[in-house]
């Protein structure tokens, strides 16, 4: 669905990206509108698929997920059946926070959150037991310098 966004839509989206838990009254105040138009716009944006259900950002380290690995995958398999199996394996693993198919020398990159290196090895062993992978390189993030889910609206 193609939706044209106006200035109020963009203001609402900026507010929701920063804190989706704030009240409609607060969003209306911050956007210079009133509660009913804000609610109608939010409903329209959700129906259009621009905005999904509100979620909560959790602190991974506070919950014991201290290790973040970026996993670079090269494969010699590019058939649809292999890709479906690979995708199913990724979707079945909650440790995989993100997965991207890439252009270039690396076929896929995964962002994997686990408690420690041993937990990563368990994840890795399970993945390669299910799906044939040519080459895997795991890079441990030493420090997260920036994280955001916000788009520059």
From TrEMBL:
GO terms classed as biological process: regulation of DNA-templated transcription; response to amino acid
Coiled coil location: none
Keyword set includes DNA repair: no
Domain HTH asnC-type: 5-66
Protein name: Lrp/AsnC family transcriptional regulator
Organism field: Palleronia caenipelagi
Keyword Transcription regulation: yes
GO CC term, one of those recorded: cytosol
Gene3D superfamilies reported for this sequence: 3.30.70.920, Winged helix-like DNA-binding domain superfamily/Winged helix DNA-binding domain
Keywords for this protein: DNA-binding, Transcription, Transcription regulation
GO molecular function, one term: sequence-specific DNA binding
């Amino acid at each position: 669905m193609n939706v044209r966004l106006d200035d109020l839509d963009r203001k609402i989206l900026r507010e929701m990206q920063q804190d989706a838990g704030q009240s409609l009254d607060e969003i209306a105040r911050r956007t210079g509108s009133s509660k009913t138009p804000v609610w109608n716009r939010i409903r329209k944006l959700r129906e259009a698929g621009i905005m999904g259900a509100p979620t909560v950002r959790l602190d991974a380290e506070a919950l014991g997920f201290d290790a973040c690995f970026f996993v670079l995958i090269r494969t010699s398999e590019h058939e649809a059946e292999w890709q479906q199996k690979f995708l199913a394996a990724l979707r079945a693993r909650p440790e995989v926070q993100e997965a991207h198919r890439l252009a270039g020398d690396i076929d896929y990159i995964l962002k994997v959150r686990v408690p420690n290196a041993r937990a990563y090895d368990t994840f890795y062993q399970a993945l390669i037991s299910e799906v044939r992978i040519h080459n895997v390189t795991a890079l441990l993030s030493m420090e997260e310098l920036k994280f955001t889910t916000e788009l520059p609206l």
